Inverse folding.
């Protein structure tokens, strides 16, 4: 600054500078802060040693020259800020403000904390803009990279089912966790960072699991054992998830419990798969028993109506073939091989399921109703419900006696499909069944879960009346 011949610049010799300019420069030059002063209408650039590295190759050429010449590439961005201060007298500040600059021979996006304020004379006249800046590019870039890394880690942990980590400070009862962990337990993310009592996290557990988990934690702490537990958490909105927690307690030099640390993994998918396997196993066992019950009924039915062994064999083969066709209606849904193009009607479905139990009598099985389409996604559920109801009728209901009969009727309005299954002539029903067999449970699950419908059982003395209702769109889907 002293060595430069300022008489050749727009500012002229230093001796002729106004006092408020001299004072601003005197304060600026020895400061450790990065400071640049843009003076006058041309915004002549004056800056200190701390600021020089922030403009790279622009120094020293920029010193004493109009800002437009040295900051050409960002002038459209910089000029409005400077003129705002110069013309209005207000201070402009910002954190991590981005700028586009070419300071090392190539373009860069850089970031600064800035404070632009007016430099006034004794009379209040604004002569220039004093800019105190601090480059934050390294920190901003590091934060961005950290955020990306955290995002990648979160995705990786999510793919692995990881909920998060926890760190419980036992003596102060302060439980720390990451945001994902806190959210799973319906605790505010801020509390996860700042800490909260263990009880707030236990409150997010499924009510039936709270006592067991509290005792398991206490046991692990007292007995210095590793902690491994599976339990349910109830998220806001009622969603229930299964998690597995693993951890251990760390102790201080005096042997007192200090910190209890660990991780929690979401195992809902595994639990659902296990439940499905268990259900399929029960279903397979149930079906095997039903097959034998059906065979017994078909043999008895064929024997009653046949006049010769040949007629009995022919009738039995025909009924077994019909039973296999009914089974085929159910198999695709179990095997997961439905096709969108596969469609049938309620009439075809009912007749296929009930055909094995026809004995030639016109009143044995009566079905009636309009032509209602059944889509591939619904055929399994409806076929299964009809098949299980027919099987129960063979074992306990109207089809278990020679004179029993079944009437199946249905209709449909604009929104819903309705079906009635009416049994008469079977064993007298003295009272409603006290327990629900697996077949009944399977039927209800097929209607309510797969078809999104409703099913009701009316246990009349002279026979069961079953009423089924399903949204028409769901049935045709």
């Amino acid at each position: 600054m002293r060595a430069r011949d300022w008489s050749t610049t727009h500012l002229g010799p230093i001796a002729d500078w106004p006092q408020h300019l001299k004072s601003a420069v005197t304060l600026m030059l020895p400061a450790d802060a990065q400071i640049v002063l843009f003076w006058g209408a041309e915004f002549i650039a004056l800056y200190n040693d701390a600021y020089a590295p922030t403009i790279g190759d622009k120094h020293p050429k920029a010193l004493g020259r109009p800002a437009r010449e040295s900051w050409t590439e960002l002038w459209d961005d910089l000029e409005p800020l400077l003129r705002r201060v110069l013309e209005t007298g207000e201070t402009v500040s910002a954190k991590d403000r981005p700028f586009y600059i070419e300071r090392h021979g190539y373009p860069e996006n850089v970031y600064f904390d800035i404070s632009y304020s007016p430099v006034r004379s004794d009379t209040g006249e604004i002569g220039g803009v004093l800019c105190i800046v601090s480059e934050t590019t390294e920190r901003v870039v590091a934060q961005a990279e950290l955020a990306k890394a955290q995002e990648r880690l979160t995705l990786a942990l999510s793919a692995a089912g990881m909920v998060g980590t926890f760190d419980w400070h036992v003596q102060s009862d302060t439980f720390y966790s990451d945001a994902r962990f806190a959210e799973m337990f319906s605790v505010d993310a801020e509390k996860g960072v700042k800490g909260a009592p263990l009880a707030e996290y236990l409150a997010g557990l499924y009510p039936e699991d709270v006592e067991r988990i509290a005792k398991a934690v206490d046991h692990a702490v007292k007995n210095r054992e590793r902690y491994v537990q599976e339990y349910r958490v109830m998220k806001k909105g009622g969603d229930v998830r299964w998690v597995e927690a693993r951890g251990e307690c760390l102790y201080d030099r005096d042997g007192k419990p200090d910190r209890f640390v660990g991780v929690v993994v979401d195992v809902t998918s595994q639990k659902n798969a296990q439940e499905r396997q268990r259900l399929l196993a029960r279903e397979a066992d149930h079906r095997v028993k039903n097959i034998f019950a059906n065979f017994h009924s078909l043999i008895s039915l064929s024997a009653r109506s046949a006049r010769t062994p040949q007629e009995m064999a022919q009738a039995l083969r025909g009924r077994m073939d019909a039973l296999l066709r009914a089974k085929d209606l159910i198999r695709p849904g179990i095997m997961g091989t439905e096709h969108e193009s596969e469609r049938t009607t309620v009439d075809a479905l009912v007749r296929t399921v009930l055909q094995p139990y026809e004995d030639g009598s016109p009143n044995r099985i009566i079905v009636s109703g309009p032509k209602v389409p059944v889509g591939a996604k619904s055929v399994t559920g409806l076929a299964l419900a009809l098949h299980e109801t027919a099987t129960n009728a063979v074992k306990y209901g109207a089809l278990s006696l020679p004179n029993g009969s079944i009437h199946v009727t249905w209709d449909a309005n604009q929104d819903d499909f309705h079906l009635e299954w009416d049994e008469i002539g079977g064993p007298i029903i003295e009272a409603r069944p006290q327990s629900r067999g697996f077949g009944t449970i399977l039927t209800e699950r097929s209607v309510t879960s797969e078809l999104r419908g409703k099913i009701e059982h009316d246990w009349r003395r002279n026979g069961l009346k079953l009423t089924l209702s399903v949204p028409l769109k769901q049935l045709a889907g």
In short: The first helix runs from residue 19 to 28.
